[in-house]
Amino acid sequence: MFEGSNIAKKYKLKECECPSGKMTRFVEPCLLFFLSQQPSYGYELMDKLDQFGFQKSKPDPAMVYRTLRSLEKEKCVVSKWDTKSAGPAKRTYELTPKGLALLHAWADGIGLRKQALEKFLKLYQERFKGRK
Amino acid sequence: MFEGSNIAKKYKLKECECPSGKMTRFVEPCLLFFLSQQPSYGYELMDKLDQFGFQKSKPDPAMVYRTLRSLEKEKCVVSKWDTKSAGPAKRTYELTPKGLALLHAWADGIGLRKQALEKFLKLYQERFKGRK
DNA sequence: TCATATATATGATAAACACATATAGAAGAT
DNA sequence: ATCTTCTATATGTGTTTATCATATATATGA
Prior knowledge:
DNA-binding; Arc Repressor Mutant, subunit A; mainly alpha; flat; 5 helices; homodimer; 11% strand; 3-stranded antiparallel β-sheet
């Protein structure tokens, strides 16, 4: 668990900096995860976010770009311009160790949140089995 | 599913009025569910919310009271004062048919959300199994 | 060269949430 | 009696998040 873990202390994450009690800012852990796989840039990350079933097929660019910048401000990612590859210049992001720690924190929180949703659904289904 | 269901049309719920793409407003479906079990009032409902693992043991009273009033404005619940039972007067709420429809809508949405969280966790665990 | 796709960014507004505080009746303690 | 605590509802304010609109600029294909 995240609680009391030393990874949190090492990177000075408050317990818990991921507000997974709510589901808000779910784009943040998704971005962190994608960046844990490989460096990428905003426009590409936006596409990848689709697979997590956000209500709109494309999540708002504003969300993505601002989240990335905010993560950089917190030193969870670092960026540099890529002017070499095709198309307009891309700002490519890489995950930092602190960013990885934050991802782990998110994963813990999301696990808890999943349990809460499951509990809700269990009670709901018990109450309404069959007869909606 | 909620999409295109006639229950949604009957009660003029937009598809989908429950913003379950995000986890925001999770108190709302919880309140609707508790009221589907039996009429209740704010202070009591606040206690029951504990069991869904909100980060704080007691969810903010402001949230609960304002959510209940907003649900009443939308005709999803109706309230009346209970001055008879012990203690200060309670505003007791009852679920309406529209409120029940909204609860069903939420349940659908929360199911989808659970899937998204599961997908995240699955990918996360594949990526980091064992070696955090 | 004109439209479209790629790519990043920000201003303005709206929604959601958190924190503080106010009010007041009931119940129990001293 | 009155003082404190518990129950109960309510709102004002500020902050954080999210949405909507729009701006800019390069590259690509028709």
